[in-house]
Design a protein that fits this description.
The chain is an alpha/beta fold. The protein contains five helices and six strands.
């Protein structure tokens, strides 16, 4: 159960989900299995998975990575329509960016911060933000994608039955 008293369903009404990218990668060994956790390929696999989750739920996601040591040159920040990837600059951490974003989004509604960093979760929940452990968030992603698959299968079955009845 997340640190906060709230329990979230697979898809919840949030303004934005803020994800500590490396924390989530380290908690999800099945994702990008066999790849170094700080590799570009592992980060890309995480971004792809969170894009699928965002497609299923509709809640915008921002993924934060520590920029130092990510590769020889600082990776570029990328933004899609609803999934944003940000790297910290020298002298700051992904945690710094997450805290700042969580505070800035508060006036617009509830934001969920995903991390296994206990200090980060305490800081965010201390100013009223919602937090989830990486394990709970992984379960939320898996539930949302399973629900999406089930809904698509039901829809396709229904449409197929309509087609065959009309013949």
């Amino acid at each position: 159960m997340p640190i906060t008293a709230k329990r979230y369903s697979a898809c919840m009404a949030l303004v934005r989900i803020l994800v500590d990218g490396y924390s989530l990668l380290h908690s999800w060994p099945e994702l990008a299995e066999g790849l170094p956790r700080h590799s570009e390929a592992a980060r890309d696999a995480l971004v792809e998975m969170l894009t699928h989750y965002q497609d299923a739920c509709g809640t915008p996601v921002t993924i934060f990575f520590d920029g130092r040591g990510a590769r020889r040159t600082k990776p570029k920040n990328t933004s899609g329509k609803s999934v944003e990837v940000l790297f910290s600059n020298a002298g700051q951490t992904a945690d710094d960016l997450i805290e700042r974003a969580a505070v800035r989004f508060q006036p617009y509604g509830e934001v969920l911060v995903v991390t296994d960093d206990f200090a980060e979760r305490d800081t965010v929940s201390g100013f009223g933000g919602s937090v989830a452990s990486c394990g709970n968030f992984i379960a939320m992603i898996q539930n949302a994608l399973a629900n999406l698959t089930e809904n698509l299968n039901n829809h396709n079955r229904s449409e197929r039955n309509k087609f065959f009845r009309s013949r």
